[in-house]
Amino acid sequence: MKISLVFSKTDPASRSMRGALAESGLNGGVLGGFTLEVVELDRELVYAQAEDLPEADCYVFLSRHVGNRSCFTLHSTGNPGDEAKLGGSPRTLGVAAPLLSHALLKALTHSSPLPVVYEATHHGPTDIGRPCIFTEIGVSQADWTSADYARHVVRSLMRALTEYDPPTGRAACCFGGPHYASRFTEYALTQGYCVGHIISKHAIRPGDTWLVEAAVRRSEPQPTYALIDWDGLRGEQRRTVIEGVEALGLSVVKL
């Protein structure tokens, strides 16, 4: 399996992680059962296009996180709504990578100097055509340029790949709750679910089933479970999600 590690020259956190990778002596080659290629772009990663990237089975984008809390985050890409302010296309999801995402989550939480949390699916790129994961450091300039934080991400990446052994048959998509998906993060870690797309409550329109189907279809592998933050959805939203995932043959797990 070939993985491209994608960095941006315009992103301070990405530059820090690229430096930590070089410091580790890992600049491509084989690690565990994976072939790695390092890619550096001259643009922000959210605006990456397929033509910017070499052929690969999966792309890991190493980026800064902008928000309201210092943390390490992981998320799939996509624009569930009608706008695409940060790259990609509106109402389009990228392809999720639940197994590798789970391996990265476990590795990042090991002796982490910051909280680790899944974010809901958001921003571009959406049109790469292969699985993509964003791994981020945030939220301040001090966080982005921290050599210790960058080294932690690189060590975690190496750990995830060398110890890669995801649970079988546990791929899941998630619905409901806030953007910072703490409940799904904890459940993935304690129950062994491999999370792909997370669709927050703000993105789910009652009766609009395309997003539910996209969260299932746009994942490699496709999920067999739908995790639902029961209290994190209104009644009409729940019905839309449950009807959609059950029509696709998924098992529903209520949190």
Key terms:
globular, 13 strands, Aminopeptidase, Rossmann fold, 30% helix, seven-stranded mixed β-sheet, four-stranded parallel β-sheet, 2 domains, alpha/beta, 255 residues
Description of the structure:
The protein has 7 helices and 13 strands. With 255 residues, it is of the alpha/beta class. The protein has a 7-stranded mixed beta sheet with strand order 2-3-1-4-9-5-8. Helix 1 crosses helix 4. InterPro entries: Deacylase_DtdA_archaea, DtdA. It catalyses: glycyl-tRNA(Ala) + H2O = tRNA(Ala) + glycine + H(+); a D-aminoacyl-tRNA + H2O = a tRNA + a D-alpha-amino acid + H(+). Monomer. Belongs to the DtdA deacylase family.
Topology at a glance:
Layout: E1 2-8, H1 12-24, E2 29-31, E3 34-41, E4 58-65, E5 71-75, E6 78-79, E7 92-93, H2 98-109, E8 116-118, E9 132-138, H3 141-144, H4 147-162, E10 171-175, H5 182-191, E11 194-199, H6 210-217, E12 225-228, H7 235-247, E13 251-254
Parallel strand pairs: 1-3, 1-4, 4-9, 5-8, 10-11, 10-12, 12-13
Antiparallel strand pairs: 2-3, 5-9, 6-7
The oligomerization state is single chain
Main sheet makeup: 7 strands, mixed
Q: Would you report the number of β strands?
A: 13
Tally the structural domains.
2
Please give the CATH class of the largest domain: Alpha Beta
- Count of helical stretches: 7
The share of residues in extended strands comes to: 25-35%
Derived from helix and strand composition plus strand pairing, the structural class reads: alpha/beta
Record the strand order, biggest sheet. 2-3-1-4-9-5-8
CATH superfamily of the largest domain: AF0625-like
| Shape descriptor | globular
N-C termini distance: 33 Å
Question: What is the string of SSEs from the N terminus onward?
Answer: EHEEEEEEHEEHHEHEHEHE
* Poorly predicted ranges: none
As for the CATH topology of the largest domain, it is Aminopeptidase
CATH architecture descriptor name of the largest domain: 3-Layer(aba) Sandwich
Family: Belongs to the DtdA deacylase family.
GO molecular function: D-aminoacyl-tRNA deacylase activity; Gly-tRNA(Ala) deacylase activity; zinc ion binding
Cofactor: Zn(2+)
GO biological process, one term: D-amino acid catabolic process
